[in-house]
Amino acid sequence: MTSSARPFLNRRLAEFGTTIFAEMSALALSTGSINLGQGFPDTDGPEQVREAAVRALRDGRGNQYPPGPGVPELRTAIAEHQRRRYGLGCNPDTEVLVTAGATEAIAAALLALLEPGDEVIALEPYYDSYAACIAMAGGVRVPVTLRPHHDGGASFRLDLDELRDAVTERTRLLLINTPHNPTGTVLTREELAAIAELAVERDLLVVTDEVYEHLVFDDAEHVPLATFPGMRERTVTISSAGKTFSFTGWKVGWVTAAPGLVTAVRSAKQFLTYVSSGPFQYAVAEALALPDTYFEALRAELRAKRDLLATGLAEAGFAVFRPAGTYFVTTDIRPLGESDGLAFCRALPERAGVVAIPNTVFYDHRESGAPFVRFAFCKRTEVLEEAVRRLKSLAG
Ligand code: PMP
Ligand code: GLN
Description:
Aspartate Aminotransferase, domain 2; 16% strand; 396 residues; binds 4'-deoxy-4'-aminopyridoxal-5'-phosphate; 2 domains; alpha/beta; 14 helices; binds glutamine
């Protein structure tokens, strides 16, 4: 503090300390625990994509500032991905913007689109950067809570009436995330259609975080919100190479949207990083062109890991919400005689040598999330097996 006793950190950010991911990864390191907290794979993505990055670097492609909107090869590959996967026509010159991960895309979108006082509806539990970026933009977050349901398998579901009721005259945008971190919920076509109808009816913008678009299991289907009637002109779609190609450290993300929206988001983005990840942009362009078999194999591998961890957690006494997508299984710790997820996660490294994430930090209504704890399954099979062995010691 200075002599005026005014805190260095401004009021907008005062409630945001260190992110839970940094706290828990540091705890994993200092205690030598298995880290099922922060969502990153413990093996790297395809060799040929890594080699493409090396080649770009050696050939001097991207070693100097790339173009502001991203290198043309990557913008073309992103547009082609949207067309091929989802039938979304997308002009690589005017409707695509490459960002420093999805994180910067979220920040730039909110900083560009919000006036101070604008309300933003976000699904709760929400990814932590949403709250911080809404705050930095001077917006007001309005959470709509996904609630546990136990019909036909436990999952967290959106109450569409609650969503509808949350819209006011001051609502500017809906911030949607599907497949959803941390619950693993994948919004259904019907739910997305209802969200789209609401957005059109109330003339709202939509920012949709689809970074787990390729990580959906069983009969779940990822449908981009931008494909619904009336949505193209009001939707900012965000994705990233981190999860799809298992290179979370490369931080190559992107925005696709109508030209006016991309221009607005770019206005903010150019003053955040301006550009990033030069050589990696070329490598991700090649990755996006991988054949369908790559994406199918990734899904199959993660589905098997989900099953291993979900089954193991159930055997260890947790109540398990079986995820339809993402890297994460959310559990309820009450069957273990526990109710405070934050205390449970802080003690877990000592008790069992495992690190997990307390979902309560992703809630405004902290008590709604208190008993829920998230485990990541994007880890090697033997690591998951060892984690399960350790967690089984909790009950006994
Ligand atoms: N959105 C969600 C829902 C996430 O889980 C994450 C973290 N991986 C991000 C955005 C950030 O993505 P990136 O690493 O590409 O910035
Ligand atoms: N998205 C990752 C997760 O949810 C973490 C990313 C980060 O550390 N900010 O675990």
